[in-house]
Design brief:
Length: 211
């Protein structure tokens, strides 16, 4: 179902889950999550649950999208890099909080579907790229914020390099789902300072492109 009431109830659940940033909550309230899930899951779009989006990938739970967006400490003038466009839901939430989102996806079909959704929903401040997120987007660097929505085993060095001084990156890190942690990296004086935020479960960040 997709009535505004469902979204308001979801926002109340997210508040209860500890998401207090009003910009993040209002972004989530305005993005129609049902437009990002396959038709068979549309009636579950406003549950706080991860949902399949095809190609063995998943759309994160809204509370995780909220936590990650909040942890990014992003503002309306910022240029942000996202790795793992997937359905484009997290991208669309982020696009309501910042100036511009550069997003990279390694699955061509997922990217094409996400691009169609951005167009239909008039999300105009998103620039997409088909490619391998491990390399980042050197032509557009530096980025004030970087959000990664697939889990690498280690923090990709290229992404730290492409973060601005004073910048923040939020990403799940860990080889196995049961031991992954959500990490916040701050670049201070050229060095990456790490902080562990939460236990999470993400699909792996895969190296290279599908053959
Ligand atoms: N944030 C997405 C869901 C992410 S699922 C949403 O809101 O729907 C993780 C995504 O990361 C998948 O689409 C997967 O294909 C992508 N991914 C994994 N490894 C990647 C890489 N090296 N480069 C770019 N994208 C990658």
């Amino acid at each position: 179902m997709s009535t505004p009431n469902h979204r308001i109830r979801l926002v109340m659940d997210l508040r209860a889950a500890g998401i207090a940033d009003t910009c993040v909550l209002s972004a989530i309230e305005r993005v129609p999550r049902e437009a990002f899930v396959p038709p068979t899951f549309r009636d579950r779009a406003y549950e706080d649950a991860a949902l399949p989006i095809g190609h063995a990938q998943t759309l994160s739970r809204p509370s995780v999208v909220g936590l990650m967006t909040q942890a990014l400490e992003a503002g309306p003038r910022m240029k942000v890099l996202e790795i793992g466009t997937g359905s484009g839901y997290q991208t669309s939430v982020l696009a309501r909080v910042v100036r511009r989102v550069y997003t990279i996806e390694r699955h061509r079909e997922l990217l094409a579907e996400a691009e169609a959704r951005f167009k239909a929903l008039r999300v105009h401040n998103v620039v997409t790229k088909f490619g391998d997120g491990w390399q980042g987007w050197p032509e557009q660097a530096p980025f004030e914020r970087i959000l990664v929505t697939a889990a690498p085993a280690d923090i990709p060095g290229a992404l730290v390099d492409q973060l601005s001084e004073g910048g923040v990156m939020v990403l799940p890190v860990g080889r196995e789902k049961r031991t992954q942690a959500l990490i916040r990296v701050r670049k201070i004086g050229g060095h990456a300072k790490m902080e562990e935020l939460d236990a999470v479960r993400f699909v792996p960040m895969v190296a290279g492109l599908p053959v």
